[in-house]
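Morning - heme C inputs below, output right after.
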Amino acid sequence: MKKFVFPIPVVSLLLLLGSCSEPENIDSPSSPSTAPEPVDWSSVGQGEVYQKVCSTCHGPEGEGNPQIQSPAIGGLPAWYVKEQTGKFKSGLRGAHPEDTQGQLMRAIAIALTPQQLDEAAQHVGKLPERKTEQHGDKASVDRGRRIFANECMQCHRYNGRGEVVFHSAPLTTLDRDYLVRQLKKYRKGWRGNDKSDFYGHKMVEMAGTLTDESIEDVVNFIGSLAHGDDPRPAADF
Ligand code: HEC
Ligand code: HEC
């Protein structure tokens, strides 16, 4: 497989990121000559933000890149992309020191203006969507269907497409490995833990009820849902 190479501006951002997260050492002050220059993307023109910046990691069609664990974002609605890039920028998401992928995305959101992020969000909303991969045996999908019907559907809707009034994410266009990772990040409190993150916090509570096995099951069901499954008959009333 071709090795993924970061373009130059992204490389300097990553260096910057590394230098920020290094513990301070008062005995050996860092030499200013080795500090990378902050990236300046103010010259990225209108209409170019997605192709010049986002596509380097999320792909020209929003297909994502498993090598750097950047998710397939094609087809996510503009409101959701705008909200999440805003969270990365403010540090509500991607600020945990062990959340490497979140920090990567956060560095990008910090380097761009809210107008540039807004423009990129509008562009993402028009990219083709993908379907979460089908995975797992029937027993696992069946267990996942019950979990989804009773614990997730009320906010993410029966079709998993999310609901703007609840600020809940659409799930059925995201890749399964990304879904598993995010549920674990909520459970560990790497995402959504800040008290002011009202909506993220709901997911921290939800993910706290899931085991590793039930995360696999529910994500296997989301793959099935993306391909036409229906959770409603599995709801307990
Ligand atoms: C340096 C690589 C990189 C670049 C450039 C980049 N991203 Fe990301 N992005 C990531 C990674 C990695 C994640 C996964 C973060 C995580 O696991 O929490 C991510 C996550 C996201 C998410 C969260 C998706 C979800 O379902 O919640 C959105 C939205 C997003 N990026 C949009 C953008 C937009 C818009 C741009 C351009 C302005 C952009 N990204 C540029 C690497 C990048
Ligand atoms: C009380 C409402 C609510 C319930 C119940 C709920 N969610 Fe969520 N979910 C949300 C909201 C709101 C978000 C966006 C949170 C944020 O901004 O971080 C979200 C985000 C997510 C994400 C992150 C998606 C992304 O694009 O990164 C996943 C995965 C997810 N939910 C799965 C589930 C699963 C699986 C269940 C059932 C076990 C569930 N949710 C139950 C409201 C809910």
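Note: The pocket of heme C (ligand 1) is lined by residues 10, 49, 53-54, 56-58, 68-71, 73, 76, 81, 84-85, 101-102, 104-105, 108, 112, 117, 120-121, 124, 169, 174, 181 (CB under 6 Å).

O.
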